[in-house]
Amino acid sequence: MFSTVFSGALQGVSAYLVSVEVDAARGLPVFSMVGSLSQEVRESRERVSVALKNVGIHLPPGHITVNLSPADRKKEGTAFDLPIAVGLLEALEIIPEGAGEGILFLGELGLNGELKMIRGVLPTVRAAAAQGIRQCIVPRANAREGAVIPGITVRGADSILEVMNFLTAGGKEREALLPAVFVDTAGLFEAAAGDSAEKPDFGDVVGQETARRAAEIAAAGFHNLLMVGPPGAGKSMIAKRIPGILPPLGLEESLEVTAVASVAGLLEEGETLVTERPYRSPHHTISQAALIGGSTVPKPGVISLAHRGVLFLDELPEFQRGALDALRGPLEERKVHISRMGGNVTYPSDFMLVCAMNPCPCGYYPDKNRCRCTENQVRRYMGRVSGPILDRIDLCVELQAVEYEKLKGSRREEGSEAIRLRVGKARELQRLRFRGTGYRFNGDIEACAIERYCSLGAEEQSCMERMYSVLQLSARAYHRILKVARTIADLDGAERIRREHLMEAAFYRPSLEYWGY
Amino acid sequence: MERNEWREREGIYACWLCSCPDMGNRQMHLLSELCGGPEAAYFAGPKSWGRALTPEQVERLKIHTAGWKPKEEYHRMREAGTELVTVGDALYPRRLKEIPDAPYGLFFRGRLPEEGVPAVAVIGARECSEYGKYVARRLGEALGRNGMQLISGMARGIDGISQEAALEAGGYSAGVLGCGVDICYPARNKSLYERLRDRGAVLSSYPSGTPAYARNFPPRNRIVSGLADAVVVIEARARSGTLITVDMALEQGREVYVVPGRVTDRLSDGCNRLIRQGAGMLLSPEEFVEEIRMLWEREKDFQTRKPQAGSCRRASPEKTSEGGGFPRGKFPEKKIPEEKLPQELEPLCRVLDFTPKSIDEIRGALPRSYQDKPLSAWLMRLTMEGAAVQVSPGHFCLKG
């Protein structure tokens, strides 16, 4: 007999439907599987037959053919075990014909028949819902992840037996066997906002007013930030606290973040949505493939895992030149295209880049009395950070070593909560400004739209003209100052950019000149 | 006419001799002396060369000579604008001739320093502070304005800045290079190189095309001090190459003046040490110029009587001040045009000096009422008015 059930396969962070076709005919005992299958999908044959045997179902000898359609796309992962098993049961008439109709099946089978957690449930369920499928059965560990998608009933099962019973039962009994899983998304976000107490707080950062201010501006406008300072000044401490002052994730953003985490297999058992902004801080020995994404089968890299969050690169000059240079495209396009033998995929990579570095090999530049580095050494150290990367940094701030006086003082600095409120207000202004456009933050504004969003009065215009010549700005630097000034004005609640906003923005401009270029 | 012809023949073979690779200055002198001039040396052949050179050098000179067409090479050099004077030439700088181990030949573009005018060498750190930049600029300016010649090495930092200022003030300056005169090293001083060539001179003891090898610089330094009557040191670390030049200057009997720095400034350690050892102190450019002029006048009398270098000739300040000698000026302060700045920025200017200060330091030095003011924006304002420099993202100092 012949049967068809639905399943899905991943393509980057999106997915497409796969129909699993099973034919059982009389003949010599053969179990063959076709449809551009990778190794782990082909192994499914052994898992399915042994699992079925172990739950007490003996496959009658016969000619079994399984086809995964569309047959020309490469299938990967272990999620096809369950649909193959269900299709087989149907083809062998162990469960009623048409019992699995209109249901999406995903899941990996253990040899004892249990269902195991898989990757990429969220994007697959999302794609299925968009295609009009109204029900799906996934491993219980993944059920809450899939259940956040509206318009589709998600059921979680522990074993193939449970699924069999569910499909055999009819009408109302069914519902009781595998109840639909519901997730209260609004509640999730509220809960996430509630337990901010345990997150690192800006109140722990002693002194460093300038750096705190820069972090606030960067967070408000989603600008890229570079912190320069001697070891121990608190650069990584500040970086770690930036996600805490960013406004909380919205549902749509959260779905994007969860999809990447799901594809990368980073979601924990029973986890639903990622509600916290990602913070990724890879070690400087990271390879280009790990940073950008890759391997023969393209997997999301760290930059995609930091999507909608913060990517912190500590000791920037120590990173491999190739890895840093590969960041240029994703920083500009906010997504990354990876082409490998295993296929071409696009992963999102809209992250806020936060970098930290020493100013020179000895760490004391520009204090020439303490710094023993020659101008050339400093330049070479800086030269390791490629100009194009510096070109994409909006704010640059210098930190000083913390004085003992400040350390021992018990004065508590302003906490993340207060900063987040100000950032939230600035974000709200940006939301109104960019309504109906592709932009979300001031940091996103492209050169062609600068004129429109960062218009200046006559006085400010002449101020910028002077700044352009005195500070020897490049066109790119000029635009950056305008964008940052826009954010500073937003933090100020000002409609127009004023001169002091421009001045402050100019103060934070990253300039190659500092390093003797 | 005959004399010019003779000079040209001399030049043709001097060019050959001075372009020979791996030959020391002393050996050039020796070879020329033994054979009786460069032309004679050229035609003398390897046998005579062997009296002055080691066998390996003779071999190398043979190879060099075989591939060298004296006339063509000489004319090519002249066409490129480069000239050559040798120690026997009347045009050879008199001051340089006095020094021990004077370079045998001197390639140059532009015009050589004049004999009848005082010349001062200004040297110092390449990685200098804004303080050093300011002093160098002021000193170069004073020398240029008062018609004194400024000799330096066209390097980054003190050298280049002082030369730039001297040319700016309409003075003469000569840059002594550690490479061939057709090469601009450091490359970023291109515009200075061109101006020196047009309005002063670039000179070198190395033939055209010689790259700036590190070993070329100590001999270069002795030419810098050798061309000058006095040497001024602006900023030098305790173990700085500048101090080697000072040693050479003392050996050559040149006056050494030093710009003092704060004892905590590592960039002034070398200078302060020299003061401790008895070097003259430069406290204001005008005073210095006056002192050099007086020295020069006295020297002229001195020289007519007894031409000899190396004795202690510094004008003693006590004596001269009693006699109402040179003015006891102060070093001019950095002035910021007041009309440009709003009132509130004035205390900020007073806090800044030539040492880079961090924002926190600046904030700490300001009165209490300034504690919660937008300092970063104000400092940028000063920067834009040309009063301050943002030396790094978080440090500011006065513009030098």
3D architecture notes:
The complex is a heterodimer of chains A (517) and B (400). Chain A has 517 residues and is α/β, with parallel strands linked by helices. Chain A folds into two domains: 2-183, 2-Layer Sandwich (Ribosomal Protein S5, domain 2), CATH 3.30.230.10; 194-435, 3-Layer(aba) Sandwich (Rossmann fold), CATH 3.40.50.300. In chain A, 40% of the residues lie in helices and 17% in strands. In chain A, a hairpin with a 4-residue loop joins strand 12 (293-294) and strand 13. Chain B has 400 residues and is an alpha/beta fold. Chain B has three domains: 2-79; 119-322, Rossmann fold (3-Layer(aba) Sandwich); 338-398. Helix content of chain B is 46%, strand content 13%. Chain B has helices at residues 2-18, 25-35, 38-44, 46-52, 55-66, 70-79, 94-98, 130-145, 158-168, 190-199, 217-226, 241-251, 269-276, 285-305, 317-322, 346-351, 359-365, 375-384; strands at residues 83-86, 105-110, 119-124, 149-152, 172-176, 201-204, 230-234, 255-259, 280-281, 357-358, 388-392, 395-398. In chain B, the strands form two sheets. A nine-stranded mixed β-sheet of chain B has the order 1-2-6-5-4-3-7-8-9, sandwiched between helices. In chain B, strands 10-12-11 form a three-stranded antiparallel β-sheet.
| Helix/strand/pairing category of chain A | alpha/beta
User: What's the overall geometry of chain A?
Assistant: elongated
The CATH topology of the largest domain in chain A comes to Rossmann fold
Q: What's the overall average pLDDT of chain A, rounded?
A: 89
Summarize the amount of helix of chain A as a percent range. Answer: 40-55%
Note the gap between the termini of chain B: 52 Å
Low-confidence stretches of chain B: 306-313, 316-326
Pattern of helices and strands of chain B: HHHHHHEHEEHEHEHEHEHEHEHHHEHHEE
The description of the largest β-sheet of chain A is: 5 strands, parallel
Count of separate structural domains of chain A: 2
